[in-house]
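Section 4.2 – Deliverable D4.2 (structural model, holo form)

The reporting period included a commitment to supply a predicted holo structure for the target in complex with iron/sulfur cluster. Inputs used:
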Amino acid sequence: MAIENISLSGRKTAVTNKDMSFWERIYLVQIVKGMMITIRHFFKKKITIQYPEQTRTYSPVYRGLHVLMRDEEGRERCTACGLCALACPAEAITMKAAERTKDELHLYREEKYAAVYEINMLRCIFCGLCEDACPKEAIFLTKSQKHVNVGTNRESFIYGKDKLVISVEDGKNKRYN
Ligand code: SF4
Ligand code: SF4
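Output (structure tokens):
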């Protein structure tokens, strides 16, 4: 069989230049057929929802916005080791490390901490590799169902520690979802 005659899908139709019949020329049958499809869909159950008032049930493996964790004493867990940034395939994470002083023992768990920690949400693909890479259980992707806010400038998509670090209260109660 010639290659041009093979139809893998079984839907291949041969194109011919035969003259159209009267009914084909006035398109009436095609218009009625199209209207029937429209009417059929009109009475079907709607699949659109009124977000944000309504939300769908999320998948059990859903990964939402990130949080930076505190320990049970309310201290930040992140030591600015950089492993999450290395693991990130989208290069969305940046940070600056700083040394903890004696006065800051109650703020940071280890001697080194992230003075600056930022995630560029325009780059993030919510893969969760940062969470997997973290040796300190400091970063998690939550199931909060909160989404990145809509914005008109790029700066608003850079999430810093002010948005990422959980509250002391939540840290003590091990709440972050
Ligand atoms: S979820 Fe993935 S893409 Fe987003 S910051 Fe973490 S590693 Fe990077
Ligand atoms: S979040 Fe974890 S992996 Fe990333 S810098 Fe902090 S301690 Fe290291």
